[in-house]
Structures
1.
Amino acid sequence: MIIGLDVGGTHTDVVLLGEEGLIREIKIPTDHSDLFSTVLESLNQITSGLGSKRIRRIVLSTTLTTNSIAQKKIPKVGMIVSAGPGIDPFLFQTNEYYVPVSGSIDHRGREVEPVRPEEIKKAARNFLDNDISHVGVVSKFSIRNPAHELKISEVLKNSFEKVFLGHRISGNLNFPRRIATTFLNASVYPIHKKFFNAVKRSLKKKGLEVPIHILKADGGTMSIESSIDSPGQTILSGPAASVMGSIAFAPDNQDALVMDIGGTTTDMAALINQIPVLEPVGINIGGYRTLIRALEVHSIALGGDSAITITNGILTIGPERKGPAMAYGGPVPTPTDALVVLGKIENSDREKAVSGIKALAESMGNSLEDTAQLIFDSVCKKILAEANAMIDRINSKPVYTIHELQEGYKLNPKDLLIIGGPAPYFADQLEKMSDYNVHVVPRWGVANAIGAALARTTSEVTLFADTEQGIATAHEENFSKKVDHDYSGRMAVENAYKLLRKKALRMGANSGDLELEVLENQQFNMVRGFLTTGKNIRVKVQVKPGLIHEYDSVVNKLTR
Amino acid sequence: MLRAKHKTGLVFFPAFDWAISPTHPEREERLLYTQDQVMEEGLLDIENIIEFKPDLVTLDDIQRVHFCVPDVWSVTTESHFISAGGAKKIGMAVLDGRVDNGFALVRPPGHHAMRIVHGARGFCNINIEAVMIEFLREAYDINRVAIIDTDCHHGDGTQDIYWHDKDTLFVSIHQDGRTLYPGSGFPDEQGGPNAIGTTVNIPLPPNTSEQGFLYTMKHVVMPILDDFKPDLVINSAGQDNHFSDPITNMNFSAQGYADLTKMLKADIAVLEGGYAIEGALPYVNLGIILAMAGIDYGQVREPDYDPDKIRQTTQVTRAIEKIGELVLSYWRQRKPARERILNQNEFFERKRNVFYDTDGITESQYEKIRVCPDCSGALKIDSSSDRGNRVLAVHIPRKACQTCMDLGHRWYESADGNTFDLVLLQDRPGNKYLKSDSKQRKE
């Protein structure tokens, strides 16, 4: 049996899955001031009365790192940044203790100007004087040559508890994002480490010594042990849980959209043959643009609990949530109240819902039912418009080859899968107002926790070769080897796959779930003075986000 | 988050799967390191820098500008449709007000492509700036356009297309034609009889550095632009004036290019040449983008930049000052020069040969234009190439007067089917692009 747990803004959902399908599901309110108790309590409830031996795997998706960044409850860290020529590095300043230093590496990874150890020592003294024990080190083009980051970390060695190096965090270009991502990793490191070590200890005490996985923003998992060194990957895993909970029910030979209609927000994502579309670069959080791999999730501030107001006769829904719907004791009318008035939702305080919607109806000079219908229609219309905008955005992403421009994939979803609290009430209306076939995902209330439970381990490897310089590197994996002029794109893909397999297994993957694919494979002849002097090869491979195969039969039982 | 002062649009289309030939300078790798630099600097994350996907231009867009022999598909590839489409996309974004200015970082380039196209010249098949400009003139309310060509090579293709157009100011700053391809672009090339003065050539001596370029911009180009009062300013932003460029002899720098961009304030920049793909392009493009966006570019510096090593001699400085004076004096005399022409013959004729170096084609042209007091004049070109194609190309200009319109149609209709393999008409006022080949005529 496996457990999936998803800490949400309002509720924490936990499921227990086994041979027979969904065995248990629990929803408890999230206590943001004490996430640890929330997690522990929900795990206690879901396992109560079960022998601990029967649990094979636990996957957790939490808001721990997301919240600490959003609420800026993060400890002081030190940042050392070596930029060289280009945009002034102070324009990317992340925090108070941010020290640009000398040193420059060019786009092919060649040193232009060395780093100066005395500058690093000075920065280190300043960090120590301010009780900083976590440091991030980033140099421009470090993914092409990490020598400067390594040299700086050598100087810092033994003085700090943990030093994060930019080139180990992602294989992608983008210096400002590398700075921000390294900063976020260093910042959430102690919080994340303390929390998950405590979770591990408590579960051990209960006799649950099973593999514990943490959900990442890209819809994949990693082992609790590997998460300690890359805590940034756990940021914004919530929306990914919902998407993963839906993919088993998406068509496997065409595109689909997934929508999680919640209380405060509606999150949407796109699937191509059951594989979620990834963000091209990385997520944005708390004003930081990052290199954190993530599903492309479009989030709008509109949900069942959005506050409805009327100003100058114009109805506005959201963006704020002021509490639950009036039908559930809330202070202001919401779309959920409209659904209650329309008779779609029962088992609630209809009178209170009517009183809220009636007030709106009167100020607009409409009937109660018309107003409720208008609210409902507006919400659906807005959701569909945003979905179209997201599709347009995905389809208008620039491409850099003639082939891609002409043959490039155009997303054209026919199916819309919806999950979340109010999902079943929206299905008919969304289908009526659009060309989509709308499906409510089975177990829509806890699909997010099911998604977490079933998600497989994902990872990505970027390999770069420059046969003129005679090197093939994947510095993120601490990999570098000498190659000769015959080194080819095919060999690069082979090398990258080998590294990827090793990395995925280290992060906790089952060998049966290693579905690998090439995301990028470019090869350029390097021409100098009318002669071909080498090849420049860029390869990016990934384990496709998806579900673990071991539980294929379980998924089939969920549909019932 | 970093925010640009000006909303700047970018089309980046490096055509990573297209080259003229495997070891040609115009190759897949050309913008690879520029892309690396642009990505690593995080330029596309800056608020107000907006990347657009290029559209493809249409056949009409190309035929509005070019007479392609024997047809458009024979002298172009998909990459040309995309690179011109990239420029067009930026032009539309600027004129729709979606951005304040924009830069089409595309390849292949276009400024050596002339009105008649038998093949590729100077790595160019179609003139991407002209295709963009003439589309914009059809679709938006713009008339007067200035093109400032800062590529190291004379923009002879753009010059040819706008030679007779009095509403287009074409200024080319380039290395002296006596020392570099294509060997033209001297100050006395000032435009045809109906557009005398609106072609401005400023040949600079080899080893001109930042000082000379910026002097020329400030004291010659900017005053001429101020006089001309264009609705739209285009920069043909070639980057081969760089001190490290392998096929030219100038001493310009990334800082210098950025300063030039800041001074010019072009609405639209379009990448042209530039073949120092590692040591120059990544830094020059970075400088240009930052300057257009209004972001500090003071720390943009190429690795081997040494201002002392590339400083120009006083001899070069004096030569530049002299050229500048000559160019300005021609500019000031453009109106009396036009008066003198109007009092001469009704028609102007010229004969010339055009060499297509990239494809090894030689073309002979005999051109006839009506000297018109009211419009840019009906134009016909009798063109034959050593590949055996002889065509008659008739151009009726935008805003043509009735007399020139009638004349153009007469030329087209009365062309002798036995003499020409192909007769082509560009009827701009009628927005019609017609052709008839000899076989059809005989039938």
Note: Chain B touches chain A through 49 residues (CB under 8 Å).
2.
Amino acid sequence: MSSRGADRAPLILPPSPTVDAVALEERAAALAKRSIKKATKIAGLRLAIRMMDLTTLEGKDTPGKVRALCSKAMRPLDSDPTIGPCAAICVYPNFVSVAKAALAGSQVLVASVATAFPSGQSPLSIKLDDVRRAVEFGADEIDMVIDRGAMLAGETAKVFDEIAATKEACGQAHLKVILETGELGSYDVIRRASDLAMLAGADFIKTSTGKIQPAATPPVTLLMLEAIRDYYYATGRKIGMKPAGGVRTAKQALHYLVIVKETLGDDWLAPSLFRFGASALLNDVLMQLEKERTGAYQASDDFSKD
Amino acid sequence: MLTKPQTTSQRIDGRMGKLSKIEKKREHEKPAIVFGNQWDYAPAPEATDFFKIGKRYELFIGGKWQKPRSKSYFTTISPSSEAVLAEIAEADDSDVDAAVMAARHAYDRYWSRLLPSDRSKYLFRIARALQEKARQFAVVESMDGGKPIKESRDVDLPLAIAHFFYHAGWADKLDLAFQGRAVRPLGVAAQIIPWNFPLLMAAWKIAPALACGNTVVLKPAETTPLTALMLAELIEECDLPPGVVNIVTGAGKTGAALVNHPDVNKVAFTGSTEVGKRIQRAVAGTSKRLTLELGGKAANIVFADAPLDQAVEGIIGGIFFNQGHVCCAGSRLLVEESIAPLLLRKLRDRMATLRVGDPLDKNTDVGAINSQMQLDKIRELVAAGEREGAERFSVSCPLPKKGFWFPPTVFTNVSLSSRIAREEIFGPVLSTLTFRTPDEAIEKANNSVYGLSAGVWTDKGSKIFHMASKLRAGVVWANTFNKFDPTSPFGGYKESGFGREGGRQGLSAYVEVV
């Protein structure tokens, strides 16, 4: 099951660099000072839409709601077909087939959370079954959660093995590894978890489930991008990044894009390597785009809720 | 006065030739990160239409704007465009004499008789007025000096204001600063400030002097007089008694006249070590009190256990903040050998994102070199570094055609004996040395005629304290760099000068303990 085989040799991973919290937060805040205006703003907002994993992860989700979300993802703004589409929609495994059918013929991918999302507190066999079923239903991407309890208890080998096993279960599907940074307690642990996830086979690392506060923050995202950069230096492999939860406004989205641009450059300014996990963000971005086009803000009811 | 600058293409060609050679050596740094223009920032210029710079500024003496007896004027230009901003009066000996007389009169007649709490009120008033006009001061500071608006707006102005607020608080509590002992002011303070932080240095000088009950004659640098003169206008609006603050403008000769004036009780100078030595000779044998804040060649020491990505930010801020025109700049990078290749790779990638250009663009990170003279000095030292065999890496960004510019540069393979490791370049040029043990780091860091500041980057608390106790530097920053606060004393060891500015310790430069 594990990529390291059944005998489980002691796992020796290269150490992770230390993180200075004050300086990290200062740098993230400094990047918020970039002045993003006019053409840059419009291009950034359009890019942000194409980077969105439009998400609904609620107990009350229904096929109807998921279909509505799919049509929003394919054509975010009725009046302008050049806007979008979003990168993916993100749902529970039960709605993967519905989404897949609704999105047929479009470029929008289907991401499914799995591995006993959001807590991850189930036996590994159940979590892997969760993944396999989601893939069978047609998921293009799997958003797994790491075992935060194991991470905090120092059982890094367990965390590593679970990610490696999940990657195997994904087959062709892309694997996003959710660290749930709001539960990890310090930047050092977040950095460690990022390194573990990449070494274990993640295609993307992702901040949060959206169910825990704080979710994505600029310093956490910067830190994870720095981890991706070190991994790229060492291996040449490009790992993607997905801040999720807490990104609600166009202004915040632009701040994140600035962080990406100035940490990892042009290659990562693409939906293939950077995503926003969000639901409320899309309409704020659309509102700002319409404001740039017409010069005036429109009422929130001018934009479809989903 | 100014030599014709090179064209952009000349500059870029010259640099690219060199860069391609360096690129070859860095084959092992593949895969590279592409910092291109796929999503580039549109120009975001700060507005300049909400105020006017005067055509001509006279001398501010005794609360009045007086024409110079010398009848002579010089121009101040914008180093980013070479456009003339204003004509400035040049004070000669007799003007300086009039200014010192005015300060003496104001000291005897008004300022020494005021209740300390009233001095405090005036300083609070200046602080608040400056706060209200902060935007205008920031824009002029960037126009006259070449520094990015981001820095004048977020660093120079807030700190200058904070110094006035802080010292306003001390004015009526001085007995608490000296363990219950009474203090009295010195009298007239002659203050000479440099061109790198024109308004901030004026605040560092004027605020403690006034708080302690002295009156001042201040001479700003000849390339950056505008914000000091605007401060004079603001002080006039604040209704300070005439002559408490006098501003005389001019170059070295004006400064010499001020230092040598017999009726001055205190000389405070911030600037080059060379001029500082001359001043010290000039006041030797007189009763004048002296504080000097001079050059530096700070070691920024990065250990293998340091938070590396944050250390890179500290290195960048340490040397490229204000184009490296900072006396406490971290201009010598000392890296533990085992991490040097990785750290330098990160540093070069970070340098690729620096935006060099129009100081008034809100997205500019590195602005213009302050003057042709300074640019020549930087070029001379960089050429010396290349001759001495150090490896140069400069950012390959387009530079504006007009004005004085130098691309952010880092040297590796620098030997401790080379000029770029010993002399203060005062520009955006970093020299990198490596070390193997903490003792070697201490030895190399202290092996300098200067001792103004130092930086230590390590995750280990005990190492920070060990290093701080061994480094011969007035300020030691740990896991940060170029942090300033009015509550924290600033000053140097050895040829970086003596005396402290800021904090409780800074007050003693302006009082006599009775």
Note: Residues 58-294+496-513 of chain B form a domain with the Aldehyde Dehydrogenase; Chain A, domain 1 fold (CATH 3.40.605.10).
